[in-house]
Each structure stands twice: as structure tokens, then as C-alpha cells.
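Hi R.,

Quick one: here's the MFS transporter sequence you asked about.
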Amino acid sequence: MASKADTIRLFSFDTPPMRAFHLTWMAFFTCFFAWFACAPLMPVIKGEFGLSMAQIANINIAAVSVTILVRLIIGPMCDRFGPRKTYTGLLLAGALPVFGVAFTQSYESFLFFRLCIGAIGASFVITQYHTSVMFAPNVVGTANAAAAGWGNTGGGAAQALMPLLLSALLMLGVSESLGWRLAMMVPGVLMLVMAAIYWHFTQDCPEGNYAELRAQGIAIEGGKKGGWASFCAASRNYRVWLLFITYGACFGVEIFIHNIAAVYYVDHFGLSLKSAGMAAASFGLLALFARALGGWLSDKAALRGGLNTRASVLFVMMLGEGLGLLWFAHANSVTLAVCAMLTFGLFTHMACGATYALVPFIDRKALGGVAGIIGAGGNAGAVLAGFLMKSLGDVQQTLGLLGIAVTVSALCAIAVRFSAAHQASEQISMHNITA
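And here's the predicted structure, written out as C-alpha cells:
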């Protein structure tokens, strides 16, 4: 019977784990690109619809709020139906509001479709679930972080490419109003293509697909509990809620920055749309390596010190993120702001990777519920950041208060602790693999 992969062979597509690894990050990249495709075009959309800062704040909140609910649901769905069916369905359904945005004619309709697009953000949970059931304990942190990190670069790619795509359309003689709408069609088409690829070339776990395995009476580690049972089991674990907070403080900040960075650089520093897009893109593109680095460091630390050491690594990264964010909030020039953004962005992405390097070890029998609840924490953090910005009416003040909140939330990471028996069990599993 096939088993979990204990190595990551980057240039291989021969095995189910490596096909899942590559196709999960590609699917997540596509979803993230579509999720944030609107963000770098907001200065143009703001002008067309005459949006106020309060309305922009509402749009940013809408973009991430519905993801909380969908992430809570999607994790247990992975346990029940398997990640292959779940991901394919999300890609197909998520493409519809992406196309819908292109046809909006008012603030209200734009807000509605932006809200619906937020469901695409649940793709992260499926990505982490799929790699968690495909890879062994000695490399699962690196696999989770690398797949999520490379997928996350879809946000940075959207910041850089969407303004360029709009510029190309304008050069062809298309009006600005039609141009941004045509540009928004591209990520929708990519999602439909990715759905077909994912369906045909992946399977749920190393042994096969959940439906066939259950029909044969074969036990499934990741999907023993499905639906409500998985959610309930996860919700009773205090570690899940501590990581819910830490993930809100790292990934929540990440997607908040994706939503406001371009507008911030245009309004605060007077950059052009293309220059602001490139500056904002540099933050997202850190995910190419930084998130994977956080997972890798967590894996290496666990080899020496166990699961509690993974939590300590997360604490250090959260602290670095908070202090870097405070620097960014008080930067008074474009150069300093970009340097500060890259610094705190590095720690932010590493913290995200280190968080999900812990997820597979919380409760293996309710993996979907654990991944879903913690993933929802990221969007809860983004929603709270959005409401904070709306109430203050000032992005710079919002960034400063977020820096303080992130620094304090690092304490939740150090509070995540595992029993000696739990750690011993995981150490035996890991050393059996690495021996």
C-alpha cells in the first residue's frame, strides 16, 4: 500500500504526494491571484464609482469576512469528501463571482461580488489539508509551508500583473472602464482551467480517493471524522484557539496589507499606480521562500527539541513581525517604508509557515476541523483590521495599532504546549522515518 512521502522531490510528478504538492500550490496560486486581483485596480475602481474611504473599507472587509465561514466549513468537507472533490468544486464555484465583478455597474453590486469572491480564500485550508495527508512528519512542515507560500505569491503576482494587464489593454485602445473589467476576466478563466487539471491529476491521499477507500473498508487517517464531528473535536482543543489568534495576527495582517498596500502607497507617498503595484507586489512575492523557510525552520527545530520547540520558533517570528510592523507604520519615506515592509513581511510569512507546521500535530483524527478553524483565524484577523481602519479612518494609525496587537499576540504562540506523551509519540514517528 502507498505511504506518505518522507522526502520532497521538487522536480518529480511521478508520485501522488508530489503531484498533490505541485497542483495544490498551483491551485492556491490561482485562487490567491483571483482573490486579490481587484486590490491593485482599486485606485481606478475608486475613481469610476466615486468610492469614499469608508466604502473602500467595507469592500476590504467584505473580501475577507465570508472566508471565515467558508474556511470553517471547508476543512470538515475535506474530511468528508476528500480534498480532490472539495478543491475542484471550490474552483468552479469561485470563478462565478470573479466573472461577476467584471459586470458590476454600482458600488453595491461590486461589494456583493467582492464578498462572494472571499470564499476563494478557503482554498488555503484545502491546500494545507492535502499536503498534510500526503507527507510524513519529518517533512510535513516544509511541505505545508512551501505549498502555501508559493500559492501565496499569487497575491503578489496580482499586485504586479493586474496593473500591467490593464496598461496593455489601454494601449490597445480599450477604455479604462472596460479595461479593468476585461482584466478581471483573466483570473476567472484560469480558475476554470485549474479545476479541470486538479480533478484529473490528483487523488485524496497516498492510498487513493476517500470514496473508494471507504467502500473497501480501509481506514483513512485524515478523514476518520467527517463534517460536524471533525469540527467539534477540533473546537475542544485549546491549542486550536491559540493558533487561531496567532494566525489572525500573521495571515490576517498579510491579507490586510494585500488589500491596502497599493492605495496606501498612492495616497500616502504619491506613487503612480504601476509603482505602487510593484511596491505592494514585493510584499506578496516574499512568500516564494519566506513561508517555506518558516516551515523548514520548524521542522529542523522539532528534530532537536520536539513539538514545544515548534511553538517557540513561532513565538520568535511573531515578535519579529510585530516590531517590523511598528517600523513600517512610522516610516516617513518610500525607501524606508519598502525596507520596513520587506522586513516585517519576511517574519509575517515565516510565522504563517510555522503555524501550519504545527497544525498536523494538533489532532490527526480531526485534521480538517483543525485546519479549518485555524485558517478561519487568519481571516478573522483581517476583518478586525478592516474594522479598525474603518473606525480610525487612517491607514497609518491602523498599522501602528496592529503592530502592538501582533507583538502581544506572540504570547499565544509560547502558550501552545504539548504533553510529554504526545511529544514522545511524535518523536518516535519522526525518528523512525529519519533513521
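Residues 140-171 form the longest helix (32 residues).

Cheers,
M.
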